[in-house]
Design goal:
The structure is a single chain. It is built from two helices and no strands. Helix 1 packs antiparallel against helix 2. 0% of the residues are buried. The longest helix is centred in the first third of the chain and has 117 residues. It is mainly α and 181 residues long.
């Protein structure tokens, strides 16, 4: 009976050892899964943090691009207004030149009439010469003003073209940025 009890104690001890081994293996698998899940959670947190940083960076970039766009649009509007003002000024100067030319033609016809009536008197000739000299001076002044206006117009157009190119490049960058999101 002692042997049976001894065999029973040995058998129970061995079965308890088997249960301990099974529990140890199960706990090792669980610890491995927990470690894997912790690593996966850490990597996902890193990716989430990087994504949030990119969102903030993209937000700042979008704000910067929007401010640049509004600045360029305002500059474009002011350039357009300047160009329109200069075009109006150029038209007004053209009208002034036409009026001066009409006055010159009328003065010429008056001179011819005076020459026929007065028989080419020297006083009339001197007066006419003074009128012609004054008209020539006015025409030269109008011509100089036209040249200045044309150069200002060309400068404004070149600035407008440059700003339009910058705006187009900015729009392309903005659109590319929007596509990347």
């Amino acid at each position: 009976m002692k042997r049976v009890l001894l065999a029973l104690v040995v058998l129970i001890s061995l079965s308890l050892c088997g249960v301990c081994v099974l529990q140890w293996q199960r706990e090792a698998r669980l610890r491995g899964r927990i470690t894997g899940l912790v690593k996966q959670l850490e990597s996902e947190n890193k990716l989430r943090i990087q994504a949030e940083e990119k969102v903030v960076e993209y937000g700042r970039e979008i704000e910067r691009l929007n401010s640049l766009r509004t600045e360029i649009e305002s500059k474009l509007l002011t350039s357009t207004e300047e160009l329109r003002d200069r075009t109006v000024d150029q038209t007004a100067r053209g009208i002034s030149i036409a009026v001066l030319m009409n006055e010159a033609i009328l003065a010429g016809s008056k001179l011819e009439a005076m020459e026929k009536i007065s028989g080419k008197t020297t006083d009339a000739i001197k007066q006419r010469n003074e009128e012609v000299a004054a008209q020539n001076a006015a025409i030269e002044k109008a011509n100089a003003m036209m040249k200045q206006l044309v150069s200002e117009r060309d400068e404004a157009i070149s600035k407008l073209n440059a700003r339009t190119l910058e705006f187009n490049e900015l729009t392309e960058k903005y659109n590319k940025l929007g596509k990347n999101r």
